[in-house]
Specification:
The chain is an alpha+beta fold. The strands form 8 sheets. Strands 21-20-19-22-23 form a 5-stranded mixed β-sheet, sandwiched between helices. Strands 8-9-5-12 form a 4-stranded antiparallel β-sheet. Strands 13-14-15-18 form a 4-stranded antiparallel β-sheet, with no helix packed on it. A hairpin with a 4-residue loop joins strand 14 and strand 15. Helix 14 packs parallel to helix 16.
């Protein structure tokens, strides 16, 4: 506190967002406590869920800023960026060369922006034993939900059904600065001092320049959650007050769908844009949220969160270069020397794979053993052993991605499993056996449980029974007509909710994951779109009787069905 009181010119709280307008637009938001928290953060600055003294050995002041800059270009960029941040009112005036009491400084790096030659200044707040991110409560910064393509696709399908025969376009609006709009509290500003003009020597600080960073920054564990809170409320205003019900948001990109020809003039950029895009830009202008003309794009085919989306063909495609990068990264991760990677490396890999699931949604089982291995681990740089199951899962993922076209036909998602299936099968299991029934063909199959293997795990046998029905459907060549563009539609009913859940989410504990992987292999190989749907036990009498090898009962039930 003494450093702040004696150096008021180094600390400041501000935001370009018009807080009064922001708060007034949220007057009817149902979560009043959440709105009040976000508004208060914009007024007094973010406290990033941190404990600045998480253990007794954390020093009062810590200077870990030195790190050799890889190139002169990057060193010059960092120095110039710091000056630009001062001009924008986001950094304090320069001081130094030494830190003041209570301050922390960690290395800065210049990182290329995605799909660009431009650089971005990133504070490495995970560097060193006493880094800022070790103060932040990790459990409080998780859970920021982003609108992936799997969120947008149902909205797109709905919009298309409301405008049959119409040509569709996509639009994307990008804010400028994102994290940098959020002020941090002066007591946290103490902990994020930026250092530039770092020389070749760690001890020679004569040319070092220091700046207090006043805003949330790239490199802080808390920034994504804080930004999601602010932007989430902005999107709520657009959806609930402006009725932009098809709007999605992924970090700083808002995107949606419209009709070709439905355009409106936007004065600040002196050009036409899709009408809803203009309405969003005008909302941002009213709230004080900055943006640039070159980042506001639209077209009948558009890149959305890294995927080429065509709303008229109803496809999303992973570009070839991104596909190659993904395969190479997964392969290198799985075949690292000594088969050890840090938790940080695991988190990066799962983030990349989860992003790719926008076009490879069936490959979710690749993450089961990885998440199990990561569970309960907190130390970012501690090595984690890659066991055989992880290596096999990653090889499975890599093989499917390499063999795929990279194109996802999402129009196939829009069908009713009760009325539009090509075939319906009923499954059930007991502790003595499994059975499934194909009413269209009046066929029943039964199988006794082998030995004592998983004898008391009814869930296992219920899931295995669904897999067995899927295997039979494929081997009977009943999906001979299927293509990736027009897959066979198979509905399987079961009275076990856990089985429904794992086939719906394609996420399961490691013991059950081989069942999901085998099912996915069949679905991809034979172009089968599978829906596993719950049915009450009272309506599943035929499959139930088959699972207990009551063939006479099952025959009677099937004739009465």
């Amino acid at each position: 506190m003494k450093t702040i009181h004696e150096n008021p010119h180094l600390f400041h709280v501000s935001t370009p967002i018009n807080i009064d307008r922001f708060a007034s637009a949220l007057a009817i938001h149902p979560n009043r406590a959440f709105v009040a928290s976000v508004v208060r953060t914009l007024k007094i600055g973010l406290w990033p869920w941190a404990d600045t003294n998480p253990s007794s050995d954390f020093p009062e002041t810590w200077d870990n800023a030195w790190a050799k800059i890889p190139s002169t270009e990057e060193s010059q960029f960092i120095a110039a960026q710091c000056i630009e941040e001062v001009d924008k009112g986001q950094h304090s005036p320069a001081f130094g060369p030494h830190l003041l009491p209570g301050m922390y400084s960690t290395p800065n790096i210049a990182v290329p922006k995605p799909h660009s030659d431009d650089l971005r200044l990133v504070a490495n707040q995970s560097a060193g034993e006493y880094c800022q991110n070790n103060m932040v409560d990790k459990s409080q910064t998780k859970g920021a939900r982003l609108d992936s393509l799997l969120v947008f696709i149902p909205l797109l399908l709905m919009f298309s059904s409301l405008h049959p025969g119409k040509r569709l376009l996509l639009w994307k609006a990008d804010v400028m600065g994102a994290f940098r709009m959020i002020p941090v509290h002066p007591l946290w500003q103490l902990k994020q001092v930026v250092t530039s003009m770092v020389g070749e020597s760690k001890t020679d600080k004569t040319v070092w320049l220091r700046y207090v960073d006043w805003r949330a920054c790239f490199g802080s564990r808390a920034s994504p959650r804080a930004w999601a809170s602010v932007m989430g409320l902005v999107v709520w205003i657009a959806i609930c007050l402006l009725n932009m019900v098809f709007l999605c948001c992924y970090v700083d990109d808002c995107y949606s769908v419209g009709l070709v020809g439905d355009m409106t003039w936007y004065d600040p950029y002196e050009q036409f844009y899709p009408t809803d895009q203009v309405r969003l830009l005008r909302l941002w202008d009213w709230l004080g949220i900055p943006h640039k003309a070159k980042k506001q794009v639209w077209g009948e085919v558009l890149v959305i969160i890294g995927f080429l989306v065509d709303p008229n063909a109803m496809t999303a495609t992973l570009p070839d270069d991104s596909k190659s990068d993904l395969i190479r990264h997964v392969h290198q991760f799985a075949h690292v020397t000594r088969r050890r990677q840090t938790l940080h490396d695991f988190e990066q890999l799962t983030g990349w794979i989860n992003w790719s699931l926008n076009v490879y949604p069936l490959l979710k089982p690749a993450l089961s053993n990885i998440y199990a291995k990561m569970s309960g681990k907190e130390r970012s740089h501690a090595p984690i052993y890659l066991n055989k199951a992880i290596v096999q899962d990653l090889a499975w993922f890599e093989g499917h991605v390499e063999a795929s076209s990279g194109m996802f036909f999402f129009a196939n998602l829009d069908w009713n499993p009760f009325t539009e299936a090509n075939m319906v099968i009923f499954c059930d299991a007991s502790l003595t056996g499994m059975g499934f029934w194909v009413p269209e063909m009046d066929l029943g199959f039964t199988c006794a449980v082998a030995g004592d293997l998983m004898r008391d795990k009814i869930f296992f046998w219920e899931a295995l029974c669904v897999l067995g029905a899927l295997v039979w459907y494929e081997q009977s060549n009943l999906a001979f007509f299927a293509t990736p563009e027009c897959p066979a539609r198979l509905t399987i009913f079961t009275d076990n909710t856990n089985t429904v859940n794992i086939f719906d989410t394609l996420r399961a504990l490691p013991d059950y994951n081989p069942i999901l992987k085998a099912a996915v292999d069949i679905r991809i190989r034979s172009n089968i779109d599978l829906r596993v749907v719950h049915i009450s036990g009272e309506l599943n009498t035929v499959a139930d009787a088959l699972s207990r090898d009551y063939c006479t009962v099952s025959t009677a039930c099937s004739h009465n069905a």
